[in-house]
Task: structure prediction
Amino acid sequence: MVMSCLFCRILQGDIPSHAVYSDERCYAFSDIHPQAPVHILIIPRRHIDSLDQTTAEDTALLGHLTAMATQIAREQKLANGYRVVVNTGEDGGQTVSHLHLHLLGGRSLNWPPG
Ligand code: 5GP
Ligand code: ZN
Result:
């Protein structure tokens, strides 16, 4: 728990969010500024700054986060496809320093990203 971290405060319930999925290791909730009809964030309950801060010890957690993104995509009926994105660091466009996976779907997504 990092007091200054927005997503830690969402995990604490200090800031309201719309829950999509929750378990002992992760939490998924709707993005406040959706960039697609489905835009969900999947975050670990343990604070990790970014993907760049993970180590080999986080392999199982990263697998779990990815598996849950896939499970949520199925529940959201994204059978036509979807995208899982992890913006990392300044050049990666990361604005919240608590590791999160974006699950985007429900429309045809452009490539390459900006
Ligand atoms: P990043 O830019 O770090 O990859 O993604 C951060 C995401 O968090 C953005 O898509 C942004 O819309 C979302 N976000 C920022 N503040 C809040 C908030 O207070 N609540 C929710 N649900 N999402 C937020
Ligand atoms: Zn945090």
In short: The radius of gyration is 14 Å. The chain is about 20% helix and 20% strand.
